Amino acid sequence: MAITNQTSLNNAKVTIPALDTEQQPTTDSDFDYSKRAQWLRAAVLGANDGLVSTASLMMGVGAIKQDIKAMILTGFAGLVAGACSMAIGEFTSVYSQLDIELAQMKRESIRRGEREKDNSDEEEKGNLPNPVQAAAASALSFSVGAMVPLLAASFIRDYKVRLGVVVSAVTLALIVFGWLGAVLGKAPAARSSVRVLVGGWLAMTITFGLTKLIGSSGI
């Protein structure tokens, strides 16, 4: 009898509980980077627009006026006007998108019938775009970008040195913004940086050249 019990114990199988894969932490490879699209788009575009538009305005004024006060006031006016414009534009755009998605959700809910309505509606509402968040991100990022050329030109009295410092600071900031946007969105960093840099250079060159041409023609 003892031998039988010993044999049973030896033949007993130890069952190891299976791991619940649903409770495993989400890895970096499983993260959906498309969820960042809303705020990332507003932030990156806002920073680039603030940087390029303000720098272009300052370069345009600098093409015909060597006064540092005129350049700084122009840049500051561009910062305030651009931040307000970006915030309002982003708010109205995202709010329109929100109205469209809410209307679509309502139509789908009616088609399913109230009896089949469940918690999925609440989850869908949580993933809807936020107009206030998008507007705030756009205005803030625009202001951050616009501060780069303003700070670069604020303490340089010499005209030619001031223009060179502004161009250098903007060039560095364009590379950083392009790289940052690519890294956060898991996109090719080099291609993004080059694209942003070339666009910024073109904007400043065209603004400077056309303003210089019009100013020298006596209009």
TrEMBL record:
<keyword id="KW-0813">Transport</keyword>
<protein>
    <recommendedName>
        <fullName>Vacuolar iron transporter</fullName>
    </recommendedName>
</protein>
<dbReference type="InterPro" id="IPR008217">
    <property type="entry name" value="Ccc1_fam"/>
</dbReference>
<keyword id="KW-1133">Transmembrane helix</keyword>
<feature type="transmembrane region" description="Helical">
    <location>
        <begin position="68"/>
        <end position="88"/>
    </location>
</feature>
<feature type="transmembrane region" description="Helical">
    <location>
        <begin position="134"/>
        <end position="156"/>
    </location>
</feature>
<keyword id="KW-0408">Iron</keyword>
<feature type="region of interest" description="Disordered">
    <location>
        <begin position="109"/>
        <end position="129"/>
    </location>
</feature>
<feature type="compositionally biased region" description="Basic and acidic residues">
    <location>
        <begin position="109"/>
        <end position="118"/>
    </location>
</feature>
<keyword id="KW-0406">Ion transport</keyword>
<comment type="function">
    <text>Vacuolar Fe(2+) uptake transporter.</text>
</comment>
<keyword id="KW-0926">Vacuole</keyword>
<keyword id="KW-0410">Iron transport</keyword>
<dbReference type="Pfam" id="PF01988">
    <property type="entry name" value="VIT1"/>
</dbReference>
<keyword id="KW-0812">Transmembrane</keyword>
<dbReference type="GO" id="GO:0005774">
    <property type="term" value="C:vacuolar membrane"/>
</dbReference>
<keyword id="KW-0472">Membrane</keyword>
<dbReference type="GO" id="GO:0140315">
    <property type="term" value="F:iron ion sequestering activity"/>
</dbReference>
<dbReference type="GO" id="GO:0030026">
    <property type="term" value="P:intracellular manganese ion homeostasis"/>
</dbReference>
<dbReference type="GO" id="GO:0005384">
    <property type="term" value="F:manganese ion transmembrane transporter activity"/>
</dbReference>
<feature type="transmembrane region" description="Helical">
    <location>
        <begin position="196"/>
        <end position="215"/>
    </location>
</feature>
<comment type="similarity">
    <text>Belongs to the CCC1 family.</text>
</comment>
<feature type="transmembrane region" description="Helical">
    <location>
        <begin position="163"/>
        <end position="184"/>
    </location>
</feature>
<dbReference type="GO" id="GO:0005381">
    <property type="term" value="F:iron ion transmembrane transporter activity"/>
</dbReference>
